[in-house]
Amino acid sequence: MSKTEDFLSLEEEKAVVAAIVAAEKLTSGEIRVHLEGHSEETAMARCQALFHYLKMDNTQDRNGVLIYVAVEDRQLAIVGDSGIDAVTPDNFWESTRDAILSAFKKGEFSQGLINGVQTAGRALAKHFPWNDNDTNELPNAISKS
């Protein structure tokens, strides 16, 4: 089994997905988590490439958020689409990353991801509240490569 597969237990994955589902019930925004073992690129460059590959930039309101973890590299990056970037403070993604990393440093990987999902979800709900016309545009499952 790879380090990526070992990063979260099945129960921990379910808890992260449940946090995504709960956050998305309050917003039209889309949140995804992607785990990968290693990348030759920087975490940010890889996250940006995956953001496009996973079609995170195809949401109606341009309000997708991707949390990327390179497990073996011990790297983390977060990318928000132009809609959410336009309405959050300049340091928002850095503070979100710091909330994740503080739990990671304690070995609490699922809780760190849940913290990040909840932080992103609150910002999305504030600026892109859920309405009756909203549909879940992207999968909630954790993607891996």
List the helices and strands and how they pair.
Layout: H1 3-7, H2 10-24, E1 30-36, H3 43-53, E2 64-70, E3 75-80, H4 82-85, H5 92-104, H6 109-127, E4 143-144
Parallel strand pairs: 1-2, 1-4
Antiparallel strand pairs: 2-3
Describe this structure in words.
InterPro entries: TPM_dom (IPR007621). It comes from Sediminicola luteus. Residues 4-122 form the TPM domain. This is TPM domain-containing protein. Helix content is 46%, strand content 15%. With 145 residues, the protein is an alpha/beta fold. The chain has a single domain (3-144), classed as Diaminopimelate Epimerase, Chain A, domain 1 (Roll), CATH 3.10.310. A four-stranded mixed sheet has the order 3-2-1-4, sandwiched between helices. Helix 3 links the parallel strand 1 and strand 2. Helix 2 packs parallel to helix 6 (109-127) and helix 5 (92-104) packs antiparallel against helix 6. It is globular and about 40 Å long. 38% of the residues are buried.
Mean of all residue-level pLDDT scores: 92
Number of strands: 4
Distance separating the two termini: 13 Å
Helix content: 40-55%
Query: Ranges with pLDDT <50 over ≥5 residues?
Result: none
Largest sheet, if any? Answer: 4 strands, mixed
CATH class bucket: Alpha Beta
CATH topology: Diaminopimelate Epimerase, Chain A, domain 1
Major sheet strand order: 3-2-1-4
Radius of gyration, CA atoms, in whole angstroms: 14 Å
Q: Shape from CA axes?
A: globular
Number of domains: 1
